[in-house]
Design a protein that fits this description.
The chain is mostly beta strands. It has a single domain, classed as predicted glycosyltransferase like domains (Thrombin, subunit H, Beta Barrel). 11% of the residues lie in helices and 47% in strands. A six-stranded antiparallel β-barrel has the order 2-3-4-7-6-5. A hairpin with a 3-residue loop joins strand 5 and strand 6. The chain is globular, with a radius of gyration of 16 Å. It starts with 16 loop residues before the first strand and ends with a strand. The N terminus is likely disordered.
């Protein structure tokens, strides 16, 4: 058996922190009309977060992540603290199966180009609400 080199391409280069305030990931709800304020769907709680990405646990639902390219972070009592973060999926794996045949999954994402204000809000969120893993 040949030894395989580990895949360092997606290895984390930034520290990740656990979030202790109930922060959740929101995704935009698809709508037929682009009028008015966009509505969001609560994807799930954040497991850990860093300046380059995060991991979120969610209950699988048909097409919930279909064509989703941005996410927002909401903190209870404060509302949305970072909005419309572009991302790409690194991994998405099952961690448990519920009695109703739905699955609990963990989605790990890498942030794409953040705007300067998004970086500031993300740094503030990590400073105020996170513990080092």
């Amino acid at each position: 058996m040949a030894d395989k080199k580990p895949n360092f391409k997606n290895k984390r280069r930034w520290k990740r922190f656990t979030v202790n305030n109930g922060a959740v990931v929101l995704i935009r709800k698809p709508s037929l009309w682009k009028l008015g304020k966009p509505s969001h769907v609560n994807l799930g709680p954040i497991k850990d977060i860093g300046m380059k990405g995060l991991a979120v646990q969610y209950v699988e639902s048909k097409k919930i992540l279909h064509n989703v390219t941005t996410l927002s972070i909401m903190v209870p009592g404060r509302g949305i603290v970072v909005e419309d973060i572009p991302f790409r999926t690194v991994t998405d794996f099952e961690i448990a199966q519920l009695p109703n045949s739905r699955k609990v999954r963990t989605l790990c994402v890498c942030f794409e180009r953040l705007l300067p204000m998004q970086k500031v809000h993300l740094e503030r969120l990590i400073d105020e609400c996170a513990n080092q893993c």
